[in-house]
Hints:
Rossmann fold, globular
Amino acid sequence: MTQAPVPGTTVPGTTVPGTTVPGTTVLGVSERIRQRLGTLSPSERRLARVLLSGPPTVGLESSARLAQHAGVSGPTVSRFVTNQLGFDSYADFQQALREEISARVMSPREFYRRHLAAGPAPGQLGDSASRLSEAVAGSVRGLDPVTLGESARLLGDRRHQVLAIGGWFSQMAAGYLVSRLREVRPRVHLVPQVAGERAAALADLARNDVLAVFDFRRYEQDTHEFTRAARAAGARVVLFTDPWLSPLADIADALLVAEVAGPGPFESLAPTVAVVETVVTAVTEALGDQARNRFERFGGIVDQWIRAWPADGDGPGPQPPG
């Protein structure tokens, strides 16, 4: 597991919660906990599960109350916060948690207002290139190799179908994953944002089928309901989310985090697309000859329908208007 920095250090490619300013913040509380899961004692894991799957505000209660919720001792809470998460005190942990909760529920309107308040950046093109490149590079570098491998294994398992769903904007990223993945393996489907289509997808779901979920703040209720229903039916879940972590993180089999920093007043999907392409590359490499054979067959069919413009100019030229 990648070690998270202690407070006061920086993480390349990340952003201050709620802003689009790149480059200088610590990991969020939830992400720190997830990165430590493999190193925790049994009692610390109970505490971690309460913080990840319980109400977001459970960590804002007193340390004694948190210990009671998790069924652990007070000293366990103290050691967990300082030794595992790297905070100087329980109060520092709670302050970081308050900031994370505030960032998770920030509306697009507030995000837009903060962008306007910051004023225009000098050198728009250079600023855009810098912010996007840092966010993309930080997202890809931040992927845990073990989690990436598990994601590739789940999404590449040809014995089971893959479904993908997203939200208002992240549905585009879900569609991109489907378009790429279906070139190297069969039975990959995008679930439309239509109630009847989602109901049919759940009805056809088999145990151990794989659901790729794209869930970014503001986390959408219908996506959560569909995912939890799929999980209850035995589906495995690969979750693409932001640094604040979707509430679905507690039921995900694999969690892939992408930055959302962008140059404008809108959160960017560019880092998510980069993570998608990294995952698809891992799937392709894991499938080996199966992926190559599928790609050849798929491409041979498509080539019959798509005609590239002749490079030598012998093809029909543009027709005059009218």
